[in-house]
Amino acid sequence: MATMNVSLPDQMKEWVEEQVKTGRYGNSSDYVRDLVRKDQERAEARENLQQMVDDALASGIADLGREELLERIMARAKAAVDKRKSA
User: Fold this and answer.
1) How far apart, in whole angstroms, are the C-alpha atoms of residue 3 and residue 55?
2) What are the DSSP calls for 4-62, one per residue?
3) Cβ 80 vs Cβ 45: under 8 Å
4) Residue 83 and residue 79: Cα distance in Å, rounded?
5) Angle ∠(5,9,10) on CA atoms, nearest 5
6) What pTM was computed for the model?
7) For residue range 46-83, what is the model confidence (pLDDT) as tens digits?
């Protein structure tokens, strides 16, 4: 596993330490790894959502307006993200 040093303002350092004190994380590295994993999941969800929007717009076969179509796609994407979070 690679090592990375990160500089944080005192307030952020204290926040990280408080998160570790809750017992949810073994140490500050665990907390940062969890943040990175969650950010990766969000980025993947955004990419998937954009692909669905692009596919839908490119298909040209929709009686729905663009906004309604986008709302439906976003709802499906949110449901998929929520499902992944609960797994």
Assistant:
1) 40
2) ------HHHHHHHHHHHHTTSSSSHHHHHHHHHHHHHHHHHHHHHHHHHHHHHHHH---
3) yes
4) 6
5) 110
6) 0.63
7) 999 999 999 988 887 767 888 998 999 999 999 999 98
Q: How confident is the model at residue 2 (pLDDT cuts 50, 70, 90)?
A: very high
* Both structure tokens of 67: 């906004």
User: How many residues belong to the chain?
Assistant: 87
- Written as six digits, the tokens of 69 are 């179509």
Residue 86 tokens read as: 């609960």
Place of tokens 């073994």: 26
The answer to whether 55 touches 70, Cβ cutoff 8 Å, is: no
